[in-house]
Amino acid sequence: MSSVIRAFSAVHVCRLTELSERQLSYWDRTRFFSPSYASENRRSAFSRVYSFEDLIGLRVIAILRKRIPLQTLRRTAEDLSKYHERPWSGLVLYVAGKKVYFKEPQGDQIRKAGSPQIVFPLSLDRVAEDMSAKANALRNRRAEQIGQIERNRNVVHNAWVVASTRIPTKTVWRYYQAGFDAAAIIRDYPLLTDVDVSEAIAHEQALARKAG
Fold it and tell me: What is the mean pLDDT of the chain?
């Protein structure tokens, strides 16, 4: 397997990044972006040698230049340099309009360049995991709640439900009348136990007798 080229002349960089030698020379002279390896006397393009990280950084700048003015990128570079020696290739960057945001090297915080403003990323995977854990916690009913029937005006319109669930006893009763046994009912309502099903049916039978 061939190894990645680690050093590039200005000529090669121009071909790969779509930047001009004039831009590279000017950016080096004004210290906006200098090559990793260069002689003190930079009289020719071959006196400047760029690393692979330089190449990545210059390509990033070339892409950003299509959206953001160079003066803005200069100010951005000054701020990003506080967080990384080679910020254009060493930081994870985000662009919104003409604003550049970056992920701090330590932690998950995303910061707006040139501003103390911090954007906190919202990971949908983490939210989903959290909701899944909390949903599973609902299954952990206390022992004294098993087989109990309760009524609360804020739960299912004040209907009788199996304790610590929102499952109406009337629903269990309808399943029973339709010929479903306890195992089949529990498959559709995993929060329930055999005792819950029996008590719900008994409760509905008692209500029917009173009504009759």
Answer: 86
Q: Which residues, including other chains, have CB under 8 Å from residue 171's CB and lie 6 or more apart?
A: 189
CATH for 1-66, among 3.90.180.10, 1.10.1660.10, 3.40.50.300, 3.40.50.720? 1.10.1660.10
pLDDT tens-digit readout, 174-197? 999 999 999 999 999 988 999 999
DSSP H or E stretch at residue 206: helix 194-211
The overall longest dimension of the chain from CA atoms, in Å, is: 105
* CA dist 62 → 51, 59, 92, 113, 153 (Å): 16, 5, 16, 18, 64
Is the Cα dihedral 127, 133, 138, 142 positive or negative?
A: negative
